[in-house]
Amino acid sequence: MLPHSENAYAELARQQIEFARNYTLSLLGDIEPGDWFQQPSGVTHLAWQIGHLSMAQYMLTLFRLRGKLPADEEIIPKAFLKRFVKGSRPEADPSKYPSPAEIRGTFDAVYAQLMRELPEYRDDQLQTTVVEPYAVYNNTLGSLLFCAAHEMLHAGQIGLLRRLLGKSPVR
Length: 171
Known about the structure:
mainly alpha
């Protein structure tokens, strides 16, 4: 049940983003850094999936909520954004990427910053129109809701990679 408050939709979006992140973390729990660049399907690897989720979460949430701030370079450097942008393709060569620890650090830092900032927004502030591309609705709320759905889509790919790496499914 949605609470009746001036930030009920912001809270709903926060809960969905949090649920998606917790599920993704459960998929990563027992995967060693040495497996992050394995491409058992020949299509993708964990490093790209987590890097892409970091970039997308930043762009769909923090960037759409308040634009780019100078301090964001510390959270997610410009080169990182470019490496994992929509349309980029996973490459098997680990030297072309940050280390798994750096990717995971960025993944965690973007999420932590979003969780600090999101409670500050009221529902009326989430009606700001965003330019394409967008999904769900052409406003900031739609961007937040799509962030959770986007992470769940990639969680499915991460789950498949787990299985191809010989890991058990997460329950």
